[in-house]
């Protein structure tokens, strides 16, 4: 049965079928579908305390948070959804600008009964977290972000940059293409997405990379959904041009990998927010949630302590 027809989350995209989870994970966390009107969202929840929304990046799903979720669940009610177009959530053709993606998550939190909450976003989750805080300021108590620059705020890298920059950033242009990217990547998902995951400074386990790649290869709508937020960048950039006129006043934590973006996440957020703290994890690359979960958890617990209290 397909995820769109199933009434209960199933298969490897849901908690019961996900591989290599921390011991006891399924005792704390469960998968569920939440219908928010025009979108059915898959969300993994567990823990006790004030609500904490985790927003994954590209080309991942809620699973990216698995190593930090048990520690966070000791003090927070953890909510880790699959975004529109990803995992077991709905994959409509439209609605991938960050304003709409943020509104999806507000609708999810409404459905779960949470009026105010803290947000943590990684990679493209930084884009969405910023849109959440800027567009819905009464809803977000604190914002933590990691490992991304911000379209429409950060300076655009040069087309003729050095080789290292090109290797790190060429996917932005590729992902924005209308059709040829899907035509080239279909059937070669292990090559294209495998190259992206190879950007980790600490190699991700082969089984983890295979889990992400298999999910993208199994469903043409998932492959299309993986490109959709990039194809919507014209709209997102225009939205960010308006958002930056209203600076964020809430506390912001920016996490960077010493072998990833470093202080880049903090420098980006300082373009939009007045109260920005920075943590750089020296030996981590881009996928800090999976490369350095202990350090990420420590940084988040320190930053979220006032919210927890």
Q: How is this structure best described in words?
A:
This protein is α/β, with parallel strands linked by helices. It has one domain: Rossmann fold (3-Layer(aba) Sandwich). The protein is built from 13 helices and eight strands. The protein has helices at residues 25-28, 69-72, 98-112, 124-135, 163-175, 180-185, 189-197, 206-217, 220-231, 233-243, 264-270, 288-291, 293-308, and strands at residues 30-35, 40-46, 51-55, 77-81, 117-122, 140-146, 252-257, 276-281. An eight-stranded mixed sheet has the order 1-2-4-3-5-6-7-8, sandwiched between helices. β7, α11 and β8 form a beta-alpha-beta unit. α3 crosses α4 and α7 (189-197) packs across α8. The longest helix is centred in the C-terminal third of the chain and has 16 residues, at 293-308. The chain starts with 24 loop residues before the first helix and ends with a helix.
What is the tally of beta strands? 8
The CATH superfamily is identified as Alpha/Beta hydrolase fold, catalytic domain
Over the alpha carbons, how many angstroms does the gyration radius reach?
18 Å
Overall structural domain count: 1
SSE diagram, text form:
Elements: H1 25-28, E1 30-35, E2 40-46, E3 51-55, H2 69-72, E4 77-81, H3 98-112, E5 117-122, H4 124-135, E6 140-146, H5 163-175, H6 180-185, H7 189-197, H8 206-217, H9 220-231, H10 233-243, E7 252-257, H11 264-270, E8 276-281, H12 288-291, H13 293-308
Parallel strand pairs: 3-4, 3-5, 5-6, 6-7, 7-8
Antiparallel strand pairs: 1-2, 2-4
Helix pairs in contact: 3-4, 7-8
